[in-house]
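Appendix C: a fully annotated inverse folding record. The material below is reproduced so that readers can follow the format used throughout the book. The structure is listed first as tokens, followed by the designed sequence.
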């Protein structure tokens, strides 16, 4: 299972250690840049990693929203079937 599958199928608890490690690395870059001039690509990679992480979070939210809506549709369908069986609409 790759990182994308783990984060889209797993929980946000899987995400927190990754966020910690990325922020720790970014802090190290900023700390090191106090004494040495860094190449622009260093910060480009750091920005890209945060951007990718935020995309994964958005994908996870969209996945959870889709699952919730599918479950809601399933509940509404059953409510309609039950209401038809009783002769009145519950929805």
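Designed amino acids, in order:
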């Amino acid at each position: 299972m790759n990182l994308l599958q783990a984060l889209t199928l797993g929980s946000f608890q899987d995400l927190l250690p990754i966020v910690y490690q990325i922020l720790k690395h970014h802090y190290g870059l900023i700390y090191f840049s106090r004494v040495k001039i860094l190449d622009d690509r260093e910060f480009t990679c750091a920005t890209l990693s945060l951007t990718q992480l935020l995309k994964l979070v958005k994908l996870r939210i969209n996945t959870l929203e889709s699952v919730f809506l599918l479950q809601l549709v399933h509940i509404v369908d059953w409510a309609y079937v039950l209401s038809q069986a009783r002769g009145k609409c519950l929805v």
